[in-house]
Structure to design on (884 residues):
């Protein structure tokens, strides 16, 4: 075995994150780690990469059959283990080439050899089929390209073990296909890969073996050829999920007045720039789930952020929110008027990571707890927080747990809880299931059903077509800042939606 | 792990105990009632300024101008009293108004024009110092005409009579008890877990005993100094603001993640300007006390006080990048800083070495904090 763990146990105060995990990675295999959020995948990776150093866990870690005692990431990198996580380790201000060679710049004497760096970066990017210049500043790249740059960097380090944590969460299908091809090629060259993804079809497309973790224990290791998605899901959640997208459409009276109405919206990123969102019109009715689809960069997130008041300058168009014109949106006023946004980048836009769950839950709703003298009624607040903690089934020791230490799915629940505590009429969810596990996804879907049953309207942005089709009553596809087509449930087919996303109007029947 | 947590929580009391023990051994007068009272007055001055700085640091900003501000505001009031014959309350009112205007202006520039607070307040440091010296014409301006007392001059010279101090201590203890009882019954009304009545009473008794003990020490000399009461009132207000109001939550939220704070519907600009205005108020109060303590406004009043205030906050566990810190920590930090300065003055340490010691303590405190916070 190239990499092996024997009876690994890792404890945090109050929680056992890993119990008795045994896992083996052979040279030249792609090995998937599957499990719900909080199942222990991230912890396992942190042990393998030395972030949790030797001595902080029980059990053994072996590389090439020899016990390895990593003190830090440096030690694991020296053994050829490269980890690519969901959080980018890129410097926005530097160029793509500089980032790829960061810390290992080719030198000539004391100086950096810019020519060699540029040439090798160009080769690597071309090799990877990436249509970006090595001189671009990384900050100007989209999320998808950043991810690929990071993978290019790891591959250039000639790593023997590549650990990919949710590498495709932000990639388009085309980019995913490119990535998977490269992984197959690397495998043929003998590189081993640990692949963590919630997208099981990818796992099955590329992986040789699958290890399922649940509640910190390794449940099973299966050969991908001898198993199937439903079986893996069953092992992950410990129960059978019969329906992946349990959308229960609510009865909407056809006469119901729209709660949000957008007409001819044109928005520029900033004053003096050309419009990025153009001629966007749609209606949103109470009890409805309106899906927003489109390729990366089509303007879905920007549209949501603009409606909420956090992006762009409006050049033209009217927005009517609950019957009243809403010309100059501001986050604060949007929340007061019942329009909330759950951002796709929860760590950046959603959470105060250093504070506890309760602090984050009530952050947007403190006005409800204000008493005489501007005082916060702390017991009332705590009770309300506990209600959301329980009803969203947040997995943590209690509402006083720090948000930064929670798993992705639980962080997402906290952001959603914060939005819902303001008692909104319209909930805009931007990629609400990105990077969260099957069980938590299901809970988000059920939550959407509950919201619409209460007469609230939901806008759902998702890059995953099956999810979008499964959960939406209507879908609006965006294409380069314009409406590419609007479809009702009966018209949903992957082909039509994709065609609209790519600007092929004939499909928008 | 647990040893570290214990060490971290004990590091401040331990440092204070070491400092006190060192000075007490070298100079027994350090623990005398006279010097302790003196120390408390100095503590009140540094502590008040540090409490203002605390709210600025919570949002992740900084204010380097407060030292010059202390001099300027005290100078304005002293000049109005001594040269223009204003009554002390009016002159202090004018100083306070000037402070509020100046700090509101700086806050507005910082949030609306997005100029880093480091630069704005560094400019303020120089501008206020220049204005200060202009106002007092680089001379010495007494805080009162002749020998008469006024509201400004008594700030650091008035002491509560013995019985008055004890009465106040009793009143404060009763209020604390009432507040604790009210908080407890509110929790019980919401079916939340509460501490047992015995523990609650024990905690209250300990607090009451501490307050009475402090008063008794003060009474041993001349009574509870007025400036200590000013600090106590300021600390109570800042504690209430940061711990019990949305404003305080927002300070922590902005320092923790400003982008998320904006998207959570927090009026970030208003909150930050509010923090600067409060800083202005604290600068004015400190300016009055510091000038009164010097007996006159002179060019050196307030010098380097911004660093003492920042040091007190940081020693007390306030994070410079924002989002973390407590009022108790700040008070502790201010006490450590003051004990150090007071003890060195008492031992007649040369000013050059005092500077070095001040700097060394600051660096040491941050280094320890960083070391112990690491997992």
């Amino acid at each position: 075995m190239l990499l092996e763990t024997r009876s690994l146990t890792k404890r945090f105060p109050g929680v056992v994150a890993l119990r008795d995990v045994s896992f083996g990675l052979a040279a030249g295999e792609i090995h998937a780690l599957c499990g719900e959020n909080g199942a222990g995948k991230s912890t396992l990776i942190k042990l393998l990469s030395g972030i949790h150093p030797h001595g902080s866990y029980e059990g053994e870690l072996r590389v090439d059959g020899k016990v390895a005692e990593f003190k830090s990431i440096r030690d694991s990198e020296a053994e050829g283990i490269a980890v690519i996580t969901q959080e980018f380790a890129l410097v926005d201000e530097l160029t793509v080439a500089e980032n790829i060679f960061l810390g290992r710049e080719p030198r000539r004497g004391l100086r950096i050899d810019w020519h060699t760096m540029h040439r090798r970066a160009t080769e690597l990017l071309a090799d990877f089929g990436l249509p970006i210049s090595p001189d671009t500043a990384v900050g100007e790249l989209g999320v998808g390209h950043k991810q690929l740059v990071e993978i290019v960097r790891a591959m250039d380090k000639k790593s023997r073990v590549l650990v990919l944590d949710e590498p495709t969460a932000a990639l388009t299908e085309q980019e995913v296909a490119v990535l998977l091809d490269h992984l197959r090629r690397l495998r043929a060259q003998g590189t081993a890969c640990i692949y963590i993804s919630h997208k099981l079809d990818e796992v099955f497309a590329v992986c040789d073996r699958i290890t399922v973790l649940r509640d910190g224990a390794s449940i099973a290791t299966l050969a991908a050829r001898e198993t199937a998605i439903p079986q893996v899901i069953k092992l992950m959640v410990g129960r059978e999920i019969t329906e992946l997208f349990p959308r229960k459409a609510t009865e909407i009276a056809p006469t119901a007045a729209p709660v949000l109405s957008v007409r001819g919206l044109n928005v520029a990123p900033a004053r003096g720039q050309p419009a990025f969102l153009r001629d966007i019109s749609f209606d949103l009715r109470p009890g409805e789930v309106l899906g927003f689809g489109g390729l990366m960069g089509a303007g879905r997130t920007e549209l949501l952020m603009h409606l909420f008041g956090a992006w762009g300058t409006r050049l033209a168009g009217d927005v009517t929110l609950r019957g009243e014109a809403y010309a100059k949106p501001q986050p604060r006023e949007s929340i007061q008027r019942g329009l909330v946004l759950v951002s796709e980048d929860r760590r950046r836009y959603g959470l105060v990571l250093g504070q506890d769950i309760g602090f984050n839950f009530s952050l947007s709703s403190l006005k409800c707890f204000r008493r005489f003298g501007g005082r916060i009624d702390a017991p009332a607040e705590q009770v309300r927080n506990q209600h959301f903690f329980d009803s969203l089934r947040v997995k943590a020791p209690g509402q006083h747990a720090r948000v930064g230490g929670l798993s992705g799915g639980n962080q997402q629940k906290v952001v959603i809880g914060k939005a819902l505590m303001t008692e909104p009429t319209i909930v805009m969810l931007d990629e609400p299931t990105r990077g969260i596990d099957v069980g938590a996804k299901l809970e988000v879907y059920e939550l959407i059903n509950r919201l619409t049953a209460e007469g609230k309207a939901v806008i759902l942005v998702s890059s995953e077509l099956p999810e979008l089709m499964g959960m939406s009553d209507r879908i609006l596809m965006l294409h380069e800042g314009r409406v590419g087509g609007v479809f009702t449930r009966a018209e949903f087919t992957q082909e039509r939606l994709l065609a609209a996303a790519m600007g092929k109007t004939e499909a928008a029947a | 792990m647990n040893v570290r947590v214990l060490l971290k929580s004990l590091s401040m009391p331990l440092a204070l105990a070491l400092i006190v023990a060192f000075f007490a051994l070298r100079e027994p007068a350090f623990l005398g009632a006279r010097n302790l009272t003196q120390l408390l007055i100095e503590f009140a001055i540094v502590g008040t300024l540090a409490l203002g700085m605390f709210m600025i640091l919570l949002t992740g900003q900084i204010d380097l101008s407060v030292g010059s501000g202390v001099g300027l505001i005290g100078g304005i009031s002293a000049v109005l009293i001594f040269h223009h014959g204003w009554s002390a309350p009016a002159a202090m009112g004018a100083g306070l108004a000037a402070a509020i205007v100046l700090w509101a202006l700086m806050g507005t520039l910082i949030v609306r024009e997005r100029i880093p607070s480091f630069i704005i307040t560094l400019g303020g440091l120089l501008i206020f110092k220049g204005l200060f010296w202009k106002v007092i014409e680089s001379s010495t301006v007494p805080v009162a005409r002749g020998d008469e007392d006024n509201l400004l001059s008594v700030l650091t010279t008035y002491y509560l009579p013995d019985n008055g101090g004890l009465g106040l201590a009793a009143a404060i203890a009763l209020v604390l008890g009432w507040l604790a009882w009210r908080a407890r019954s509110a929790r019980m009304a919401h079916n939340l877990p509460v501490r047992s009545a015995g523990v609650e009473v024990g905690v209250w008794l300990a607090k009451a005993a501490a307050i009475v003990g402090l008063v008794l020490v003060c009474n041993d000399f001349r009574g509870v100094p007025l400036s200590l009461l000013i600090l106590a009132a300021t600390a109570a207000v800042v504690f209430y603001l940061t711990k019990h109001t949305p404003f305080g939550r927002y300070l922590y939220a902005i320092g923790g993640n400003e982008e998320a704070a904006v998207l959570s519907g927090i009026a970030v600009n208003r909150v930050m300007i509010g923090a600067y205005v409060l800083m202005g108020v604290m600068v004015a109060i400190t300016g009055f006390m510091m000038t009164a303590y010097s007996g006159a406004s002179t060019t050196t009043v307030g010098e380097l006080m911004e660093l003492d205030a920042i040091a007190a906050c940081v020693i007390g566990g306030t994070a410079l990048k924002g989002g973390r810190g407590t009022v108790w920590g700040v008070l502790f930090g201010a006490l450590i800083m003051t004990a150090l300065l007071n003890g060195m003055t008492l031992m007649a340490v040369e000013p050059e070495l005092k500077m070095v010691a001040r700097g060394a303590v600051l660096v040491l405190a941050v280094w320890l904090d960083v070391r112990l916070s690491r997992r």
